[in-house]
Design a protein that fits this description.
This protein has 423 residues and is α/β, with parallel strands linked by helices. Helices cover 33% and strands 22% of the residues. Strands 9-7-5-2-10-1-11-15-19-20 form a ten-stranded mixed sheet, sandwiched between helices. Strands 12, 13, 14, 16, 17 and 18 form a six-stranded mixed sheet that branches. The longest helix has 22 residues, at 152-173.
């Protein structure tokens, strides 16, 4: 299909980067359409590891143009460092940045930390990268955009009001000083603009013309379904829409076509941040799974909370995103267990619930209803051969398909490109 969208069906960290990289070889454009550098993707290609935060995972292919769309919030310092590291690793960075994408400013990072402290138990477990305050300023209509970096006088004019607002918010509401002066921000950010100048442009128009010309496009979502600002476990969410339908908003192009929408599902679940986590496991079993799966944040390095696969969560992702198929990742990690559980429903009081509740109080009370499966001890000799998979693993796959009414067409058995089965 001309359009393919890759979406996280859980809390994020499902392995979207590897799957995006796998499909990017056939794409003319690989596009990020929401989120910021709170997202992180780790790619392993030819034995080398690449860590990305803002640049789409297709950057490793010379034939694809990577696009940071208008719905993304951009920390220019982080982006420049990412470009530098990729170039040091021998990667040619073919990148376009929307001039309409909003900037993360130093005061946004300061406000982020103050907000988290203020919100207490209702906080989202922010990465403190300034994402939420940047989106808030966008909605307040005093945000600064990437294109402003190339217009010094406009940048200064816009910054004046935004700086005073955020300074007063920090000092008068949160009793927190703002270390960076307005003058230093102007000097630093205009310098960033000169370094990024070659990449900045009207990506909305370029993507529209490419779409009309029939070129293949791959859209890469950040985070996952349960972190969506509207349909996730609010308020423990990110600050943008993580749904597939947001690609038009985040790129400025009315595609009017669903295309192929792939939901990435990890064979277990992990979560960075605070919120109810119905299938969470703790203790020695959790630590074993965390170490085996390398469940530590790409952006923060924080240990992730881990738990069993939750099909209540996946059902919502299938419905809300219009998923055409699922990609199952990290099943190879579960070879450490002789028995594996899948949550099929929640018990809330005297009710059995099979769809994700909107109520935070209900989620806090929810208890998992599990079905237990025999584990699989070896997946090392099954690469690219579905028929060679253990029967216990096939039963696990068939059960997920039946419960979610969505086919699993992609199975990832490791971080490398070649460890992928296409059904």
């Amino acid at each position: 299909m001309q359009l393919t969208t890759i979406i996280g069906a859980q809390w994020g960290d499902e392995g979207k980067g590897k799957i995006t990289d796998f499909f990017a070889r056939d794409a003319a454009y690989v596009v990020r359409f929401q989120g910021g550098n709170n997202a992180g993707h780790t790619l392993v290609v030819d034995g080398r590891t690449y860590k990305l935060h803002l640049i789409p995972s297709g950057v490793l292919y010379s034939g694809a143009i990577s696009v940071i769309g208008s719905g993304v919030v951009v920390d220019p310092a982080v982006l420049l460092e990412e470009i530098k590291k990729l170039k040091e690793q021998g990667v040619t960075v073919r990148l376009k940045i929307s001039n309409r994408a909003h900037l993360i400013m130093p005061y946004h990072i300061a406000v982020d930390g103050a907000l988290t402290r203020h919100q207490g138990e209702l906080a989202a477990g922010s990465t403190n990268r300034g994402i939420a305050p940047a989106y808030a300023d966008k909605a307040y209509r005093h945000g600064l955009r990437v294109g402003d970096l190339l217009e010094p006088e406009m940048f200064k004019e816009k910054l004046r009001g935004a700086y005073l607002f955020n300074r007063d918010l920090l000092t008068k509401v949160f009793n927190t000083p703002l270390a960076e002066s307005e003058e230093s921000i102007v000097e630093k950010y205009l310098a960033y603009g000169q370094e990024l100048k070659e990449y900045i442009g009207d990506t909305d128009l370029e993507l529209y013309l490419a779409f009309k010309d029939g070129k293949k496009m791959l859209f890469e979502g950040a985070q996952g379904m349960s972190l969506d600002l509207d349909y996730g476990v609010y308020p423990h969410t990110t600050s943008s829409s993580t749904l597939a339908s947001h690609i038009g908003v985040g790129t400025g192009v009315g595609y009017n076509i669903a295309g192929r929408v792939i939901g990435i599902v990890k064979a277990y679940v992990s979560r960075v941040g605070t919120s109810p986590f119905v299938t969470e496991i703790e203790g020695e079993e959790a630590e074993t799974l965390r170490k085996k799966g390398q469940e530590y944040g790409t952006t923060t390095g924080r240990p992730r909370r881990v738990g069993y696969l939750d099909l209540v969560q996946v059902r919502q992702a299938v419905r809300a995103n219009g998923l055409t198929e699922l990609a199952l990742t990290k099943a190879d990690i579960l070879t450490i267990f002789s028995q594996i559980k899948i949550c099929t429903a929640y018990k809330i009081g005297d009710k059995t619930v099979t769809e994700m509740p909107a109520s935070l109080s209900q989620l806090r009370l929810a208890q998992p209803i599990y079905q237990t499966f025999e584990g699989w001890q070896n997946l090392t000799d099954t690469t690219n051969n579905f028929n060679a998979l253990p029967e216990s693993f096939k039963k696990y796959i068939n059960f997920i398909e039946k419960e979610t009414n969505c086919p699993i067409k992609i199975i990832s058995l490791g971080p490398e490109r070649e460890k992928t089965i296409i059904r």
